[in-house]
Specification:
Pfam families: NAD_binding_7. The chain is α/β, with parallel strands linked by helices. The chain is built from 4 helices and 7 strands, in the order βαβαββαβββα. The strands form 2 sheets. The chain has a 5-stranded parallel beta sheet, with helices on both faces. A two-stranded antiparallel sheet has the order 6-7.
Length: 157
C-alpha cells in the first residue's frame, strides 16, 4: 500500500447470527472477543484445554459451547469464521492452515498478517458502531476508535 493509504484490509461487517464460529483459545483475548460474537448471534464454540471463569459462565448460561481439550484437525469443519487465540504459535498456525483449506476467514492473534482477517478496534454509541484498523498499530486504532465514539456522542450523530 502507498504510504498514508491506510490498512490493506477490506472492511466488512460480518452477519454471524446463526452461523458457527470457532474460537481456539480461551484466554484474555478470547474473553474480550467472545462476548461480542455471542451478542452478534453467532453459534460460538470455544476450544481450549482450560477456560477462564467468565467464558465458562457464558457456556453455563447456554450462550456458547466449550470443548475443554486441545485443538484438533477438523475442528473448523462447517465454521464461517475462526479465531486462533492461543499462546502457542504452532497451534495458531495449524488453525490458520485449516481455515485456509476450508475457505474460512481466520483471525490470528499472535501474528495478524498470517491470518486472513483482522479484528478492528470497535466501539458503540447512539446506535452507531465504529471500527478502525491500522497497519500494525492496534493502540493507535483504539485511540482513533475512542475519538470517533466521542464525536458520535458529542455531536449527537
Amino acid at each position: 500500500m502507498a504510504d498514508g493509504a491506510g490498512s490493506p484490509a477490506y472492511l466488512v461487517g460480518l452477519l454471524l447470527a446463526g452461523r458457527r464460529v470457532v474460537v481456539v483459545g480461551a484466554g484474555r483475548v478470547a474473553a474480550r472477543r467472545v462476548p461480542r460474537l455471542v451478542e452478534a448471534g453467532a453459534v460460538v464454540e470455544v476450544i481450549a484445554p482450560a477456560v477462564r471463569p467468565d467464558l465458562q459462565a457464558l457456556a453455563d448460561s447456554g450462550a456458547l459451547t466449550v470443548r475443554t481439550r486441545r485443538y484438533r484437525a477438523g475442528d473448523l469443519a462447517g465454521a464461517w469464521y475462526a479465531l486462533a487465540l492461543t499462546d502457542a504459535a504452532e497451534v495458531n498456525a495449524a488453525v490458520v492452515a485449516e481455515a485456509e483449506a476450508w475457505h474460512t476467514f481466520c483471525v490470528r492473534a499472535d501474528r495478524a498478517d498470517e491470518g486472513s482477517a483482522w479484528t478492528p478496534a470497535s466501539g458503540h454509541a447512539e446506535g452507531v458502531t465504529v471500527a478502525t484498523i491500522t497497519s500494525h498499530d492496534p493502540l493507535r486504532a483504539r485511540r482513533i476508535r475512542d475519538r470517533l465514539v466521542e464525536v458520535v456522542v458529542g455531536e449527537g450523530l
